[in-house]
Specification:
The chain has 113 residues and is α/β, with parallel strands linked by helices. It has five helices and five strands, in the order E-H-E-H-H-E-H-E-E-H.
């Protein structure tokens, strides 16, 4: 993602310190917005909006990638954001914007090697 100049955000409903989580796992993210610190959980629009504000991008420029249809995909789409479902178990085969693993993400974003 970085080779293509993309900014990366991490949004989670988890109850851990998400910035510490990102540091511990050496995740190269521009923003880590966790519900524990933010005070709202996905699919509430404010958690998406907070991450977008730090990234400095508009809703139409962003893509949410997540594995929860209700929290990640429906929440992002309610704001007008493109959302790609990571459907590892093949539960949403009718979903048009879906991938089976994160390895397929660059192609889903139209990025080339």
């Amino acid at each position: 993602m970085r080779r293509h100049g993309l900014r990366v955000g991490l949004i989670s409903n988890g109850q851990r310190d998400l910035e510490e989580f990102a540091r511990h796992h050496e995740l190269d993210v521009d923003v880590a917005c966790g519900s524990w610190m933010h005070g709202r959980i996905k699919p509430h629009p404010s958690i998406f909006e907070a991450a977008l504000a730090v990234l400095g991008v508009d809703v139409g420029e962003a893509v949410m990638v997540g594995d929860s249809y209700r929290d990640d995909i429906a929440g992002a789409r309610a704001l007008g954001m493109r959302a790609i479902l990571v459907d590892r178990d093949g539960l949403h085969l009718d979903e048009t914007d879906r991938i089976e693993s994160l390895h397929a993400l660059p192609a889903a974003l139209g990025l080339t090697a």
